[in-house]
Amino acid sequence: MFTPAPGRGRVLRMLRAQGGLETRLALRNAEQVLLTLLIPAALLAGLTLVPAVPAPEPRVAWLFASMLALAVMSSAFTSQAIALGFDRRYGALRRLAATALPRWLLVCGRLAAVAAVVVIQVVLLGVLAALLGWSPAGARLDGAVLAVLLGAAAFGALGILLGGTLRAEIVLAVANLVWFALLLAGGIVVPVADLPGPLAALAPWLPSGALAEALRSALGAGEFPPAGPLLVLTGWAVVAGVAASRLVRWT
């Protein structure tokens, strides 16, 4: 006799299914691919070949670290926030609410998709940087991997928190505004030491400044990132992750 046995699936199976779905959707979106891959790659090549922004030598290593931080922010924060905001608007999350998928697993599924996209970004930007003259020989790759993971977690949780709590139109405006603000004044393109007084004091406490400084230490100076930037990223990831798991709304 066939006996129905309804119930929630295994957690890892649900996470794998949700993370795979989110990754495929992100890679199929041309606007997100432009934001997360093409813009950082174009800035890396352009600013390396044309010294429009002052940077210490080796220039390509410093810019590679900066553009990798920009790529992580673009995919984990901006793209995730906008995608989640419009998923809520069009009712996609309402349909997910009818399944056994808990809210915290939705957050983890989005973060898993961010991790998959970040891996692609690291590979592509690393190949481009190598073509421009960067060598991984003196870099602390272990420190860079740790910084990227913490940065993706921090920005991913912030993106989910933003996209899961505000209206889609507001999310679109705020996410893009924050992206430009952090790019120019958050310690990514302009070093923290070269920012004006108030911004120079604030930038190290922002996830953008902490991630950029950690990656510059690992990829540019060849040193393991200091504890300060890593702790800042961890704090942002924990606080934003807990808030997102509790405050994200399905509609």
From TrEMBL:
Membrane topology per record: Multi-pass membrane protein
Segments traversing the membrane: 33-54, 60-86, 107-132, 144-163, 170-193, 227-248
Broad class of the protein's primary localization: membrane
InterPro entries: ABC2_TM, ABC_2_transport, Nod_factor_ABC_transporter
Domain ABC-2 type transporter transmembrane: start-end pairs: 55-245
Subcellular location: Membrane
Keyword Transmembrane helix: yes
Domain of life: Bacteria
Alphabetical UniProt keywords: Antibiotic resistance, Membrane, Transmembrane, Transmembrane helix
Any Pfam family the entry gives: ABC2_membrane_3
Protein name: ABC transporter permease
Organism the protein comes from: Pseudonocardia tropica
